[in-house]
Design a protein that fits this description.
The complex is a heterodimer of chains A (about 220) and B (about 180). With about 220 residues, chain A is mostly helical. Helices cover about 65% and strands about 5% of the residues of chain A. Chain B has about 180 residues and is mainly alpha-helical. The chains are: A mainly alpha (about 220), B mainly alpha (about 180).
Chain lengths: ~220, ~180
């Protein structure tokens, strides 16, 4: 080991980081080289002076805080949150229906009429019959009701297949559907408010600008 | 849970959902980390804030820790990243040595000249460039090995070594230039 290598290895030797053969080389060099002995002692003196000159202190007495685990929400909060999602889903599905059916209000023989259709071609008379909000509501109600009615049969199938996990999930789903069925009044009311708002927007746009290019023929 | 449990075992327990195991990790490392940050920043409030943030981040990201037995290196690396990003913001008193005499002192009695020695050493350490100060603190005060320091500082071992020897030369020269009798 030469002197440069020795001096670059002092910290490793003092901290026991050198492998045994390297440590033996280091010690052998220290015994034969007076300059490196001085360097080694200098290093130790500086390190000891630093440690003595800046001793450790105790950290803040209150310690360091960690986030507390979130308490599990109650069934009431979970239900309320679920209904929030359900109402949003209903509004979203209604908007989707509006986009698909593309209702247009126009004057037909001096009467205000509502028609549905995507293209500029006149819809057949039987297709242009307006689909009312009540009809859409009835369709959704029927779908929910059917799901509830079919649940026992599905549950029986799940229990026969031995899947307790699936049966639990289905039970939970039935509970949710029943809650939805019982609370449809408020949900539909919110949906109706959305519809009225959209119609008012549509009316404003019709009043302030030219008719849209894909407006139904015959206006 | 005993004091004999290794960091790796405690990390495993945290990952299994035992938050109290992390409290033990905090208890084990808070003194080291706080003192490292105190000596690096020269500001007790800033050291406390960074320490708190480092423990919080390490707790939230403990799933990302690959070498669980190297929890301490990982924790210090998080702290280093925090103060490096903070240092880029103006207004932080990172290199202001005017508060050195206000830094907390350890409890106990002091021999004559100890106060002068402390001020001299703190002044010398704080005058080092941050990259030199880091390596001196990690090696001399906290006894990290070079491979761990390379992880903490995110640079090659060879760089860590050359910085340490450069810093030691500066410190040795600084100590020699002190008035005779100022160091007991």
């Amino acid at each position: 080991m030469n002197c440069d290598r020795f001096r670059m290895s002092i910290a490793e030797r003092l901290d026991g980081e050198l492998e045994a053969p390297q440590a033996q080389e280091f010690d052998a060099h220290a015994q034969t080289c007076q300059g490196c002995q001085v360097a080694l002692h200098e290093w130790q003196r500086v390190a000891e002076t630093l440690r003595a000159g800046w001793p450790s202190v105790e950290p803040p007495a209150h310690g360091f805080l960690l986030p507390q685990p979130q308490p599990r929400s109650s069934w009431l909060e979970a239900t309320q949150r679920w209904f929030g999602y359900a109402s949003m889903a209903l509004v979203a599905s209604s908007l989707l229906l509006l986009i698909i059916l593309r209702p247009a209000i126009h004057f037909d023989r001096h009467e205000l009429a509502l028609s549905f259709g995507a293209s500029g071609v006149s819809a057949p008379s039987n297709m242009s019959a307006p689909v009312t909000g009540d009809q859409v509501q009835a369709m959704v109600q029927a779908a929910v009701h059917n799901a509830i009615m079919q649940a026992p049969a599905t549950l029986q199938t799940a229990s026969q297949s031995g899947s307790e996990e699936n049966a639990e999930r289905l039970n939970a789903m039935v509970v949710r559907l029943k809650l939805l069925e019982e609370n449809q009044g408020s949900l539909w009311q919110r949906n109706e408010e959305q519809r009225v708002y959209l119609e008012s927007l549509w009316s404003k746009s019709q009043a302030s600008g030219p008719p849209a290019s894909d407006a139904p023929v015959g206006q | 849970m005993t004091e004999q449990e290794t960091d790796k075992e405690l990390v495993d327990q945290v990952l299994a959902g035992k938050q109290e195991a992390f409290n033990l990790l905090v208890w084990r490392w808070q003194r080291q980390l706080y003192n490292f940050l105190l000596r690096f920043t020269g500001n007790a409030d800033l050291a406390k804030d960074i320490c708190q943030e480092a423990f919080l981040r390490s707790y939230l990201r403990i799933k990302e820790l690959r070498e669980k037995e190297r929890f301490a290196s990982w924790l210090f690396r998080i702290a280093v990243n925090i103060y490096r990003s903070d240092r880029r913001q103006p207004g932080l008193p990172m290199d202001d040595s005017s508060e050195l005499s206000d830094l907390p002192l350890p409890d106990g009695e002091f021999r004559p000249g100890a106060r002068e020695l402390q001020l001299a050493v703190r002044s010398l350490v704080m005058r080092l460039e941050p990259e030199h100060r880091e390596v001196v603190l990690l090696k001399v005060f906290h006894g990290f090995h070079f491979d761990e320091m390379a992880v903490i500082l995110n640079c090659p071992e060879s760089t860590v070594k050359s910085r340490l020897y450069k810093a030691f030369e500066l410190l040795r020269a600084g100590l020699e230039s002190l008035p005779p009798g100022s160091i007991q």
